């Protein structure tokens, strides 16, 4: 990565130095500190709310009348919990209908070329992806990226990002792509799951959102027309690393 | 002799030309152009950061693109703030009824230069952080970017943390340049209740200005040029 930084620096060194000299400065203004506040709100009573538990995961859903919000949770602190979540997702693929949002989580970081090849073969529509780098003390760095102008991974943007990481955390090492967020059909998911590099295809957000819509409908709350926002608590690859489920490199 | 003098003239001409070119085109600046230090606190709370700085820069690293980078750098938290973060997160990892917990996030906004409204500076997915178990969450079509800390037990009071976001000037056509401000904040949000993600605390730390090809600190009145 240092090599990448040098290549970026050289042609523009003079101009960069001149600009930095002119513009760099410390601003000493500081806002007034206020009294310490305690966050103690409670869930609003009477609001439409759902909470369902399954084997290896659970979800909570609520609506304020303008959107449907879904939060998915799992046991991320033990290898058994992480593996159970992965297995549950493998089984849930059979419930997928149409094209659904999915997080494809790898067993180890894939090189950019390996990642590009896998996505091309799978034909996934990618929205974002997560990459891993490690600093010289072993600290983990999470890098978020997205396709740009028909390019799955823009080398220019990746180099620019890595240069900034290198500036702050000298000696950091880029490992590769660990997770990709995309939309996929059941057939695409099954093909991905046959690949040994894929730990699981997380479809819980899609499944939970469907269940929440029908669950609210059965209670007389129509949320069929509302946009849905969903999220998983705890990035799965991080906790695969923590629990030793991710493959060592 | 005549040949050497000719080469010298040519070299001097090339040097002068290159200097003119360097001064005429926007610089591909990968380094930071402005720093806000020390960070302030508009509404401190029990898991907000204790120190650090904000940096910003305008960058032309991709042909035809104009980018504005913003970062929280050398961010630190006290041990008591970390302990509170761990306590806040307890119900995310354990059985609770109701199942409600709190998460702390390092947040960056790109706003207009004189109002807290979003403009053409939008994140489109490129960002990084070394915060533990970070969950990157983009809001308002990329105008707001939150780095939630979802592994608070891995936080360390002796570590410097970073959160960086690249904003794209979506209105840039080669000449039109969107200016504005990049803000650094810390948020706390209640999760799992109604609504499932509800911001309870906002602590504004710093703002830097984005002006054409440069980033700068606000003037004495806190305004951007």
Descriptive account of the structure:
The complex is a heterodimer of chains A (249) and B (225). Chain A is an alpha+beta fold. Chain A contains eight helices and nine strands. In chain A, helix 1 packs across helix 5 (155-168). The longest helix of chain A has 15 residues, at 204-218. Chain A starts with a helix and ends in a 6-residue tail after the last helix. With 225 residues, chain B is α+β, with helices and mostly antiparallel strands. Helices cover 16% and strands 41% of the residues of chain B. Chain B has three helices and eleven strands. The longest helix of chain B is centred in the N-terminal third of the chain and has 23 residues, at 2-24. Mean pLDDT of chain B is 89; it is low at 1-5 and 16-29. Classes of the chains: A alpha+beta (249), B alpha+beta (225). The interface between A and B is large, with 81 and 78 residues. Strand 6 of chain A pairs antiparallel with strand 5 (121-129) of chain B.
Task: Give the arrangement of secondary structure elements.
The complex is a heterodimer of chains A (249) and B (225).
Chain A: H1 2-9, H2 13-23, E1 49-54, E2 57-63, E3 68-73, H3 79-92, E4 100-110, H4 112-122, E5 125-134, E6 140-145, H5 155-168, E7 173-184, H6 186-193, E8 198-202, H7 204-218, E9 228-232, H8 236-243
Helix pairs in contact in A: 1-5
Chain B: H1 2-24, E1 34-36, E2 51-59, E3 67-76, H2 79-88, H3 90-93, E4 101-111, E5 121-129, E6 134-139, E7 144-149, E8 161-169, E9 180-191, E10 197-211, E11 214-216
Antiparallel strand pairs in B: 1-2, 2-3, 3-8, 4-7, 4-9, 5-8, 6-7, 9-10, 10-11
């Amino acid at each position: 990565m240092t090599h990448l930084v040098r290549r970026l620096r050289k042609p523009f060194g003079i101009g960069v130095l001149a600009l930095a000299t002119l513009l760099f400065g410390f601003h000493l203004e500081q806002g007034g500190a206020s009294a310490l506040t305690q966050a103690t709100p409670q869930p609003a009573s009477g609001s439409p709310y759902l909470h369902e538990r399954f084997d290896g995961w659970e979800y909570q859903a609520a609506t304020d009348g303008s959107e449907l919000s879904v939060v998915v949770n799992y046991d991320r602190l033990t290898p058994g919990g992480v593996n159970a979540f992965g297995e549950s997702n493998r089984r849930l693929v059979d419930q997928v209908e149409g094209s659904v949002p999915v997080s494809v989580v790898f067993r180890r970081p894939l090189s950019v070329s390996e990642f590009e090849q896998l996505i091309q073969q799978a034909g996934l529509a990618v929205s974002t992806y997560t990459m891993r780098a490690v600093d010289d003390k072993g600290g983990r760095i999470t890098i978020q990226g997205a396709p740009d102008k028909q390019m799955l991974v823009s080398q220019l943007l990746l180099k620019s990002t890595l240069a900034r990481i290198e500036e702050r955390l000298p000696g950091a090492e880029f490992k590769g792509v660990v997770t990709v967020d995309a939309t996929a059909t059941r057939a695409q998911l099954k093909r991905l799951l046959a690949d040994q590099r894929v730990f699981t295809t997380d479809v819980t957000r899609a499944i939970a959102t469907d269940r929440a819509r029908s669950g609210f409908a059965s209670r007389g709350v129509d949320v069929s027309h509302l946009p849905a926002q969903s999220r998983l608590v705890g990035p799965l690859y991080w906790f695969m690393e923590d629990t030793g489920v991710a493959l060592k490199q | 002799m005549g040949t050497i003098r000719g080469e010298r003239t040519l070299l001097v001409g090339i040097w002068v030309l290159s200097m003119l070119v360097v001064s005429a085109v926007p610089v591909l600046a990968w380094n930071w152009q402005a720093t806000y230090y020390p960070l302030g606190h508009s509404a401190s709370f029990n898991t907000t950061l204790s120190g650090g700085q904000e940096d910003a820069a305008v960058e032309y690293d991709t042909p035809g693109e104009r980018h504005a980078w913003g970062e929280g750098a050398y961010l630190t938290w006290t041990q008591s703030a970390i302990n509170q973060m761990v306590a806040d997160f307890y119900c995310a990892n354990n059985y609770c009824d109701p199942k409600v917990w709190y998460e702390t996030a390092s947040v960056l906004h790109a706003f207009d230069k004189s109002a807290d409204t979003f403009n053409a500076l939008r994140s489109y997915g490129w960002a990084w952080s070394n915060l533990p178990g970070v969950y990157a969450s983009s809001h308002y079509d990329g105008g707001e970017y939150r780095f939630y800390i979802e592994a608070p037990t891995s936080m360390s009071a002796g570590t410097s943390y970073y959160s960086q976001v690249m904003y794209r000037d979506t209105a840039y056509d080669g000449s039109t340049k969107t200016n504005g401000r990049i803000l650094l904040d810390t948020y706390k949000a209640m999760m799992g209740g109604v609504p499932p993600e509800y911001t309870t605390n906002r602590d504004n730390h710093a703002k830097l200005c984005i002006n054409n090809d440069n980033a700068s600190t606000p003037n004495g009145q806190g305004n951007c040029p």
